Amino acid sequence: MNRVIHFEIHAKDLDVMQLFYQYVFGWDIKNIGPHMSGYRVVVTGRNEQYSKWPGINGGITPRQGNTPNENSPLNAFVCIIDVEDIDDTLEKIASAGGAVVTNKTDVHGVGQLAYRKDPDGNIFGVLQPVKAIVSNDF
pTM of this prediction? Predict the structure, then answer.
């Protein structure tokens, strides 16, 4: 089964968003450096803390494009879905009416990532990891 394994919050000002989510939810957020465009890794909690719903971790990434206006219903977190074969998955997305948002890219030490839109215009990511992620630490 292909599971949602990661979420992303798109932001114009990553520092402001990091402070917001740290303050509001107490998330552990780390800037992983300029070589990754200031991407922030977000740890929402350790799985051993939760007995019923472990949840997922995510990131804060630079926004690509304009910030949605206050009346836009399209502003959302982007979920990243773990896939075994990204090329096969991208073909399935295209044949099912999905649209390309970004080309497939290599994310150093993470895997191959691509963003697509579903037929209703919702953006999501697919990731073929370089190896299974078994830890909450990056």
Answer: 0.66
CATH topology of domain 4-129: 2,3-Dihydroxybiphenyl 1,2-Dioxygenase; domain 1 (3.10.180)
Q: How far is CA 64 from the centre of its chain?
A: 13
Query: pLDDT tens across 57-84, in order?
Result: 999 888 877 776 666 655 567 888 888 8
pLDDT digits (tens, 9 = 90+) for 127-138: 999 875 545 555
Rounded distance, CA 41 to CA 79, Å?
14
Contact 59, 9 (CB under 8 A): yes
CA distance 132 to 63: 27
Q: Which amino acid is at 3?
A: R
